Amino acid sequence: MSLVDVFVTPGGALVGVDTHARTLDGELIEVAKIVCLPHISTVFAFRGLSDVFFLANYFFLSHRSGFDELAEGMGDIIRKTMESHKTNAGNHADENANFIVVGYSNKYGRMAGHAFEQAAGSSEIMEKRDFPQLLAPAWGNPDDFRRLNVRANRAGMIAVAKEQCRLVKERGPAEATAGGRLIIAEVKKGSILMEQACRL
């Protein structure tokens, strides 16, 4: 159960992901769950099976236009990714997948974030466009995070990620995985800075 957290302001965005993952045979590994296209000030983050993320990277990294065009084409990228995954994964094909793109939008003249989700066994793609904040997993209870009284900055992202890891261990299924390192990308027009912010 990966962590993906995003804070978006007009001038910049923070995107945080953890690094723990499990292979299809249950092995605990560390992987990157975020990649960047610095020439269009864009990052792509993911929650779901690592194999799906690796397949999606082919389509993401071969994108030839800007952030807005990438966001508009995400439905097609997700369909192609999931078709490839089903062909290769057999019984493991039905898993939830979350795709998040954050970057500088020429359309809006500012930073923007868009999230896309395909539920296990569904062909429908749910979209959340131009959000100011995304916390996943959020557990459906705002009080879990409201009491932290965090700001939309690096320190706030670290506090939220640590709380998410605690909640995954407390409430998640036995096979749930969250932790490792917190990777934070700071995205602005013309720059992307990435760091290992802390151990979770």
Tags for this entry?
200 residues, alpha+beta, Glutamine Phosphoribosylpyrophosphate, subunit 1, domain 1, five-stranded antiparallel β-sheet, 12 strands, globular
List the topology elements.
Elements: E1 4-9, E2 12-17, E3 20-22, E4 28-30, E5 34-37, E6 42-47, H1 50-61, H2 67-72, H3 74-89, E7 97-105, E8 110-118, E9 125-128, E10 133-136, H4 143-146, H5 154-171, E11 181-188, E12 191-199
Antiparallel strand pairs: 1-2, 1-10, 2-11, 3-4, 5-6, 6-7, 7-8, 8-9, 11-12
Helix pairs in contact: 1-3
Could you give a short description of this structure?
With 200 residues, the chain is an alpha+beta fold. The protein has helices at 50-61, 67-72, 74-89, 143-146, 154-171, and strands at residues 4-9, 12-17, 20-22, 28-30, 34-37, 42-47, 97-105, 110-118, 125-128, 133-136, 181-188, 191-199. The protein has one domain (4-199): Glutamine Phosphoribosylpyrophosphate, subunit 1, domain 1.
